[in-house]
Design brief:
Blueprint (H helix, E strand, L loop, with lengths): L1 E5 L3 E3 L3 E3 L2 H4 L6 E5 L2 E4 L3 E3 L4 E4 L10 E3 L6 H4 L3
Antiparallel strand pairs: 1-7, 1-8, 2-6, 3-5, 4-5
């Protein structure tokens, strides 16, 4: 899963995202946990500019709103995988 930073507010409608526990908690009604730090989107969810999320790839519809983050190791990587 690749890490992306939102350059502006975005909304995702479906798919699987990598989120930290802190990001998933307020969105729990719209998500279903499918693995450690991985969640299936059940209802549209929004992210503020600056939030970092994990995606299998940037959807073409929002690719221009995302910046790919460099690969990391350790705890920061585990938070979005």
């Amino acid at each position: 899963m690749l890490r992306f930073k939102a350059k502006e507010p975005i909304e995702l409608y479906r798919g699987v995202v990598g989120l930290s526990d802190a990001q998933a908690a307020p969105r729990q009604e719209s998500l279903r946990k499918v693995g450690k730090g991985r969640y299936e989107i059940l209802r549209p969810i929004q992210f503020k500019a600056g939030e970092i999320i994990g995606l299998d790839g940037a959807p073409k519809t929002i690719a221009s709103m995302l910046v790919e983050m460099p690969a990391t190791t350790g705890k920061a990587q585990a938070e979005v995988e």
